[in-house]
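Board work, copied verbatim: Anti-sigma factor antagonist
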Amino acid sequence: MNLTCRHLPGATLIAVAGQVDTRNSAQLEEYIDQHRERLDEHLIIDMRELSFLDSSGLAVLLAAAMLARAHGVGVHLAGLQSMPARLLEITGTERAVTVYDHVEQAIAAVGNLDLANPAEPA
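↓ predict structure ↓
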């Protein structure tokens, strides 16, 4: 598994490549925790190069989604390949996250969400 991170206005973008399974799902969870600058920012996960996701990786995504929802934001998954997409579909995980065909769509949607809900003035 290979992980990279970019910080965007109002979001953290993490790209996941390879496979996420019981051997490395804890590494994904730790990476997400360490690279999110703020809990009230959206989390976009670029899954274009993720070929395999098992239940332990799914649990990491669901935990991230629950934490995001508790802080008024969301988890946005982009570019799912067929196997991870099927796992999300059969488990109903699609109801806990927002899924986009392309990462650019997720970035644009998060930007529009931030414009619709501007931060309170200090």
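The beta strands are 2-8, 11-20, 42-53, 75-78, 98-100.
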